[in-house]
Amino acid sequence: MTDHIERPEYHISKNRLETLVDGIFAIAMTLLVLGISPPRPQDALAKSVLPGMIESLVPQVFLFIVAFLVLALFWLGHHRQFHFVHKIDPVLLWINILILISIVFVPFSTDVAGDYPDVMDAALLFHANMFIVGFLFFTQWRYICRHEHLCEPVLEKPVKRGGFYRSILAPAIAAVGGIICLVNPPLSLLVYIALPVGTYLLGHLPSP
Amino acid sequence: MTDHIERPEYHISKNRLETLVDGIFAIAMTLLVLGISPPRPQDALAKSVLPGMIESLVPQVFLFIVAFLVLALFWLGHHRQFHFVHKIDPVLLWINILILISIVFVPFSTDVAGDYPDVMDAALLFHANMFIVGFLFFTQWRYICRHEHLCEPVLEKPVKRGGFYRSILAPAIAAVGGIICLVNPPLSLLVYIALPVGTYLLGHLPSP
Amino acid sequence: MTDHIERPEYHISKNRLETLVDGIFAIAMTLLVLGISPPRPQDALAKSVLPGMIESLVPQVFLFIVAFLVLALFWLGHHRQFHFVHKIDPVLLWINILILISIVFVPFSTDVAGDYPDVMDAALLFHANMFIVGFLFFTQWRYICRHEHLCEPVLEKPVKRGGFYRSILAPAIAAVGGIICLVNPPLSLLVYIALPVGTYLLGHLPSP
Amino acid sequence: MTDHIERPEYHISKNRLETLVDGIFAIAMTLLVLGISPPRPQDALAKSVLPGMIESLVPQVFLFIVAFLVLALFWLGHHRQFHFVHKIDPVLLWINILILISIVFVPFSTDVAGDYPDVMDAALLFHANMFIVGFLFFTQWRYICRHEHLCEPVLEKPVKRGGFYRSILAPAIAAVGGIICLVNPPLSLLVYIALPVGTYLLGHLPSP
């Protein structure tokens, strides 16, 4: 497969791939809002009913914010991992396409989990989705570390290790969330607060 | 945190952040139209009922235009503030992510307020959303002014002051809107007409 | 206002404006498809009912294609007019923002007109929307021609005249559509076939 | 028509066309998720009913993944074909606009086929859509091969032939899918698994 990359017609420009990735992240992050179902009471009842209906949206809005922040952190992770990528090979391309499928699925799983946060299957769907995204980013980092001819600047040892801890964080948190979910589904969704905190703490390790 | 920015792996390219910001603004501005609910009368009744139904959409269309213009002004504000930003540090990055969450929420709050402009809670939701966006832009400008090592060209005193007045305008108008809303919700939504007018008048002060 | 453009902080980059414009065009063109309501018969009836339901979507699909082509032609028109624009001044910026509002409205008016092509008000909404977009593009071209300091390369006389005919075509066709609509709404929607034909014929005149 | 391209005002920048194409691909790929209808049981019933409802979404999710992968492959095909394109002429522009219309239609046909995979007309709609996209890409490649003045680097014979086989693959698979569909609609949707496999095998031929 190595010789494919050498042939000019197989060259996949890093720039155009990043445009697609950034575009899909931007759209998925914006579509999250469609998961918050606008209340539609009858006009006559609106004044008395709407305040309560808006309050009952709190769990949906909370999960919207959580999902947005997690996507923003994944977008940042993509940014940091690709900082070192110089050439795209077919494997890296397909890891990215799998990442994009699971990112596009997030507005759906957020919608379901936001509507029924106390139903185990709904919350599990969300955790499973986050685990898959996280696992794919972890896989991507492993692949980048093992194929140094794709990289520039060269990856130094501490950078590799820092990126390893950083990219194992998200799938680990999602797995913990999945386990807690078996006992207490709504509580399990709070687990993602550990993601920005953990990423910040790992910021003192070398990166990305 | 300052030394983070020095390490190449922490470098967040201004260009890729602007792409995400522009993308999310473009999508949020376009999704606003989904808040105007297309009338769906039965085919047999359509000819007699539809004209009235289209007329009753006027408040929704009006708020769609208001929200679009306000978002366009915020996009412009981002453009102007980032004109001086040369390097992105983690704090600036997170201010931007918070700005994006509140921008993505706008199609939802516009939808609710457009459907029930005479219900206080619906109009308040819209004012609160606009206040938060405005306040975050104000915070961003303060942060930029106080961290001159991120800037290029250097910020001169009158430019700082001009940007200060300009970025305090939106949250001030949203706060006034919120107060009027306690008395007269539909009227309070007209307050945003002051935003383009005020921005124009402040155009005679140094900028951004 | 001229001295505003000279001040660096008022500089609006042509590049970032084009990104916003291209983004909003791309999203509006894609959202058009949401106007085609997917049939949702009950599973038990689907086999017998669905074929007829799909056939009855023909007018919606037809108008979807028309609206997509018209938007593509407007996008192209933007491209051609901006070929000559070198600097953006505040007036040009605001013409663009007005263009974008009316572009974003197109998925809504297409949805309504596609659902009720034989109701006069629905078809008129579509013609009015198209007329406004066309008129704004016409206005933009006039403004560009009269403010040559914004242009590079310099606009030669035949180029100006060619662009004039070209940009008067869309609003003229929409106006004719509006008049035919008073007599025969569904027929009036066919009028836009004249737009690609006319643009092609005008291609023999100097451009844009 | 050749002299049109020489005139500067007819110049359509490859870059801005690619931005529109990438944008529309990104949005269409993300809108696919809206085709998966989130289950909305009553709160009281949710715990007992939701698991079964989520399971019954499997065919929709499967087709969502298929459609996403096919769109990703088309996006890649566009990337590869445009690698050789240096200048855009009006015919190439219009082939691209037709490609975009049929890409934008994919979320709709995927939605219908995902909801009713065992109804022949629904699955046929999907195959027809895929066939049209594939046929347009095939046409585009033929056009590029026959208009070498638009190309750079020059197309060598084996590259032309490789691109020919590659671009005939998608419409051929869609045609086979359409034929199988007459006998067994749900089975026919599995045919697209041959697309990544076939593209991989053809990777040993010269490209794109």
Helicity of chain A, as a percent range: over 70%
**What general form of chain A does the structure show?**
elongated
Question: How would you classify the quaternary structure?
Answer: homotetramer
Structural class of chain A: mainly alpha
Q: What is the terminal-to-terminal distance of chain A?
A: 27 Å
* Main interface: chain pair and counts: A-B, 40 and 37 residues
Work out the number of β strands of chain A. 0
Question: What portion of the residues of chain A fall into strands of 2 or more residues?
Answer: under 5%
Describe the fold and architecture.
4 copies of one chain form a homotetramer. The first copy, chain A, is mainly α. Helix content of chain A is 74%, strand content 0%. Chain A is elongated and about 65 Å long. At the A-B interface, helix 2, helix 3 and helix 4 of A face helix 2, helix 5 and helix 6 of B.
